[in-house]
Amino acid sequence: MAKILIADDDRNVSLLVKHLLNENGYETSEASNGLAALELFERQFFDLIVTDLRMPAMDGMSFLSEVKKLDPSVPVIVLTAYASAETAIESMKNGAFHFLAKPFKVDELINTVKCAFRTGSKA
Q1: Where are the domains of the chain?
Q2: Which of 51, 53, 72, 94 minimizes the number of CB atoms within 10 Å of its CB?
Q3: Residue 120's pLDDT is what?
Q4: CATH architecture for the domain at 3-118
């Protein structure tokens, strides 16, 4: 079973993403900010990461950069309520697999996760 790390300070979004991923057969762990997520990532193996951009302690862009230093092959899906062309481009330049704006469509998130696994993730 693929393990996915969810990093989001919005508890409702985190619970929704967790529920959707669990319902689709994925194992999930959660962190409420980028620093906590990075600490989890350093201790455990994850096949994929779903992260928010705006979080306390360490934002999603910094978290993304740190993850890619540790393991360039892990796919990272960025979710944000503050979507712009600039943040999407910056995320992709920093190694994000995909960028989704909140509110996202359920099937869009699930299809993006499935696509990440089909296109060469470690799972």
Answers
A1: 3-118
A2: 72
A3: 63
A4: 3-Layer(aba) Sandwich (3.40)
Nearest to 66 by CA among 87, 36, 99: 36
pTM of the model: 0.91
The structure tokens 């990272």 sit at 76
Handedness of CA 75, 122, 17, 30 (dihedral sign): negative
Runs of H (alpha helix) within the chain: 11-23, 34-43, 60-70, 85-93, 106-118
Beta carbons of 77 and 115 less than 8 angstroms apart: no
pLDDT at residue 117 in the model? 92
Find out whether 66 and 43 touch, Cβ atoms under 8 Å: no
Instruction: Provide the pLDDT for residue 121.
Output: 45
Helix and strand counts by DSSP (H, E) for the chain: 5, 5
